[in-house]
Write a structure and sequence with these properties.
This protein has about 475 residues and is α/β, with parallel strands linked by helices. It folds into three domains: about 110 residues, no CATH class; about 130 residues, NAD(P)-binding Rossmann-like Domain (Rossmann fold), CATH 3.40.50.720; about 160 residues, Dihydrodipicolinate Reductase, domain 2. The chain is built from twelve helices and 20 strands. It has a nine-stranded mixed sheet with strand order 6-7-8-5-4-9-10-12-11. Strand 6 and strand 7 form a beta hairpin. The longest helix is centred in the N-terminal third of the chain and has 30 residues. The N and C termini lie far apart (about 50 Å). The relative contact order is 0.11. The mean pLDDT is about 90.
């Protein structure tokens, strides 16, 4: 047999194994609310080639080789055990299993929290107030999570009616996205009931101009969390209007909050959310991207001071062509110019990491790309840093630590911004760009300022609703080595 035939046989064998995984992945999510992943990459919805690719990537960046037959065996056994709602990293279960451990006994020990009478997560109604870039991505994520029948339930969107065929246009924008591609599934409309139907999920479209006068209970919605995506109100007085509507209990703002509103970066200070916090902010995309990385560096080296330069994709508040704009410089064409603008992200970090109060400055440049941004962190440290040591530490943080959902790490001389469209992580450290010279460190952190941020918003929503799944195996603390 020549090399070509051997490789083809190997591929066919892997394809068969991946095909056999798909029913188990789907049933665990649909019937048990269990999300499976390979080192943080979700398996749900992947094709056979996507599953194979996830396994191939597992051998990169220090992962041990992961055989598809091992993954299949673990998935089959997990399905037999019928756990309740959880996020389970199959790759870590495989790699951390002792050589002499019997599979079922080992899995029963690792998954004990979600076996033996555990209860599924409670359901909670969610309303999206505003249906722009972030609102539609949140809708996509919530709809994709709906199969398990537990957790967050998207019930309605609230918008101002823009045209007679408004609902058809809203549905079309949900189904088609120039940056993030087509919606995975079907999107139709029920014009008589004013509903968008996406993969069987009926989403009520409510037309309103006043956030304080909506009776959500008339649509069967109660105790809802309203996610305000408009950015129109950012203080407690403005956002509390939502709480005056019938059927609303809490509000989440997808922009930096002002005054006493807690600005939450999931993974950093989400544990500070209490039942008494009726209004919470998910901070900004940039704050979510840089805060976890800064937290990891501060823990390992100590940060004396720093400057954050954000190279940010243009946003909808800029003009496509030169025209009047109340903001400085933003009237000039977003697609033709780099535009210097302000950012409060550096100062906002201290709301999640108080130890960095007064230590960071920030500035921003808007550039002619529609999505994915880059933050350059120029830091002065308390303790000297070595480039390889720092990169190894950040790589391990991205793989094993409690910040694994927030931080990713890459090493590629060919990677560019569009390669990060759709990233689930808040920020991705570009290891090849790292500079470390004694007590000076410069880090380059990519982030999908739309989708990566939306994932963080969902995590905050889950924390507010008490539906955030148990993550297994448990993540561990990662320390600087050397």
């Amino acid at each position: 047999m020549n090399d070509f035939d051997a490789h083809q046989m190997s591929w066919n064998s892997n394809e068969e194994l991946a095909e056999r995984m798909i029913p188990h992945i789907g049933a665990l999510h649909r019937d048990r609310g269990v999300v499976t992943s390979i080192h943080g990459q979700r398996l749900m919805g992947l094709s056979t080639t996507g599953i194979i690719e996830a396994h191939e990537k597992a051998s990169q960046l220090g992962h041990s080789d992961l055989a598809l037959d091992e993954t299949l065996a673990v998935l089959e056994k997990i399905r037999e055990l019928s756990p309740h709602t959880a996020s389970i990293d199959v790759a870590r279960l495989v790699s951390e299993r002792p050589a002499d451990a019997e599979l079922e006994g080992y899995l029963r020990e690792q998954l004990a929290e979600v076996l033996n009478g555990s209860e599924p997560a409670p359901e909670r109604d969610v309303v999206l107030y505003g249906f722009g870039r972030i609102g539609r991505l949140l809708a996509r994520i919530l709809i994709s999570h709906a199969g398990g029948g537990t957790g967050l339930r998207l019930r309605a969107i609230v918008v101002r009616k823009g045209a007679d065929n408004d609902i058809a246009k809203r549905a079309s924008l949900l189904a088609r996205d120039s940056v993030h591609g087509p919606f995975e599934g079907s999107v139709t409309v029920d014009e008589e009931k004013n509903q968008i139907i996406a993969n069987g999920v009926r989403v009520q479209v409510i037309y309103a101009n006043d956030p304080a006068s909506i009776d959500y209970t008339a649509f069967g919605i109660d105790n809802a969390i309203v996610v305000d995506n408009t950015g129109r109100w950012r203080d407690e007085e403005g956002l509390s209007q939502h709480l005056q509507s019938t059927g609303v209990s809490r509000v989440l703002l997808t922009a930096p909050g002002k005054g006493a509103i807690k600005n939450i970066v999931h993974g950093i200070n989400d544990s500070s959310i209490t039942e008494d916090d009726s209004i919470v902010s998910a901070a900004s995309c940039t704050t979510n991207a840089i805060t976890p990385v800064l937290a990891a560096i501060d823990e390992a080296y100590g940060i004396v001071q720093g400057h954050v330069e954000t190279v940010h994709s243009f946003t909808n508040d800029q003009n496509l062509i030169d025209n009047f704009h109340k903001g400085d410089r933003r009237g000039r064409s977003a697609v033709l110019n780099m535009v210097i603008t302000e950012t409060g992200a550096a100062k906002a970090v201290s709301k999640a990491l108080p130890q960095l109060e007064g230590k960071l400055t920030g500035s921003a440049i808007r550039v002619p790309t529609p999505d994915v941004s880059l933050a350059v962190l120029h830091l002065t440290l308390e303790r000297p840093a070595d480039r390889d040591q720092a990169n190894d530490y950040l790589r391990r943080v991205s793989l094993h630590s409690k910040l694994r959902q927030q931080i990713d790490y890459v090493e590629s001389a060919e990677i560019v911004s569009t390669d990060f469209v759709g990233s689930h992580r808040a920020g991705i450290v570009d290891g090849l760009a790292t500079i470390a010279n004694d007590k000076t460190m410069i880090l380059y952190v990519w982030y999908d300022n739309e989708y990566g941020y939306s994932r963080q918003v969902i995590r905050v929503l889950e924390r507010m609703a008490g539906t955030h799944p148990v993550v297994l195996p448990h993540r561990r603390d990662v320390r600087l080595e050397g």
